[in-house]
Amino acid sequence: MENDASSAGVNLGGLFGIAEIKILICYIFTTINEPIPANMLANLLHYEGIANGFEVSDAIVSLVRSGHLVLHNKAEDTYMITENGVNVAKTLQTSLSYTVKDRACAAAIKMLSRFKNAKDTEIKTVKENGASYVVCSLLDGEKPFMSIKVMVTDEDQAHVIKESFLQDPAAIYKKLIEMLTK
To answer: Quick one: pLDDT band at residue 3, thresholds 50, 70, 90?
Structure first.
């Protein structure tokens, strides 16, 4: 296969054809069965080397036009699968390799978890008295019900703390409550 813009970033074994990409998208939406942010999905599949991000974005637009996906929440750029999309996924899923489907779904589930965690948290870096802090909060609606303030030495450390908090903020809350109530 020639190297062109549509294959940029796609690893060996990844998807190059728009039809395969559409089937994979329908398969992911059917398997997860929750609203998924389109832009995040395109970036994820590109980052994982499964498909070119631009091709994924084009495939999503095409699936919306054909009635296989519908916009769920415009502000969050999330979409849901329709009955037609489910039928495509069920009928054509065997045309994709198990490895590609498995890797894509596992990565999409992880991405969706981070997306939900980001909606339920607020993380900011603040400076006070010449020191930098990361403030990580779990939200109940728009109000924080738990906040942790940690002094950091630099931006790299702040980034690591932010990423770690976003991985599983509920686990951090659980461990903290457990430790405080022993």
So the answer is: very low
Say yes or no: 146 and 94 in one domain.
no
Last residue of a domain, one of 116, 133, 159: 116
Mean per-residue pLDDT, 29-48 = 93
- Averaged confidence pLDDT in the chain: 89
| CATH code for the domain in which residue 107 is found | 1.10.10.10
Q: Concatenated DSSP letters for 43-94? A: HHHHHTTSS-HHHHHHHHHHHHHTTSEEEEETTTTEEEE-HHHHHHHHHHGG
Pairs from 99-107 (Cβ < 8 Å, separation ≥ 24): 99/13, 100/13, 100/14, 100/15, 100/24, 100/50, 101/24, 101/27, 103/48, 103/50, 104/24, 104/27, 104/28, 104/45, 104/48, 104/50, 105/27, 105/28, 105/31, 105/32, 107/44, 107/45, 107/48, 107/50
pLDDT for the residue numbered 1: 44
- What are 98-146's pLDDT values in tens digits? 889 999 999 999 888 888 888 889 999 999 999 999 999 998 888 888 9
Q: Look at the chain and report how many structural domains it folds into.
A: 2
